[in-house]
Amino acid sequence: MSEMGLRNRIRIYWRMTELGSLTRRYIVIGAFDGALTIVAIVLAALASVLLWGSLIDPDTIILSGLGAAVGLAISSGWGAYEAERVERRLELEELEHVMHRSMKKSLQVQAIRFATWWGGFIHAISPLPASLLPLLPIVLISTDFILAGIFSVIITLIFLMFLGIWMGRTAKINPITSGLRMVLAGLITAAICALLSIFLGASH
User: Fold this and answer.
1) What sign has the CA pseudo-torsion 70, 74, 75, 77?
2) I need a labelling partner for 151 at 20 to 30 A (CA). Which of 90, 104, 107, 202 fits?
3) For residue range 61-80, what is the model confidence (pLDDT) as tens digits?
4) Alpha carbons 180 and 201: distance in angstroms, whole number
């Protein structure tokens, strides 16, 4: 199959299975999960330092964050693949029922297979850049974990704001309101993580 032929075929698959909306949805979900998962680790460590005077090795936070990012990517990708596989299979069965014939060798089946793999792939990679973002200050300001942790939280909230603005513009709704909703979700997560760290620290 020529390059142009492959490109056209993928374009057809894209339209047939409405992959544009799926891609946007998985990018938002993955980025949101990735950023908040890692910033939660940073917040827990930051609360431990500020409240209990614990000694934190930045390398440990970085390694823990990278491990969590990879684990999240694998679980997200695998889960999305399995979910898409089931949903697309049900969609195909419904189509076969309506058409009163098997669709096994049709272009629709090929499109569904592509959509299933694409869903798993995009949901696997979307958390990774967002996961690395909160770790960047820890890497660059390794000598002052408190300052690095504060910058990590600020950068994550700014990222969530821009993510929400992009969502708002895509959905043609107020982008600022959409951005603030994402920031609010981040602040709620931060508050829960801080309270959990206080509770666990006090219990020890």
Assistant:
1) positive
2) 202
3) 999 999 999 999 999 999 99
4) 31
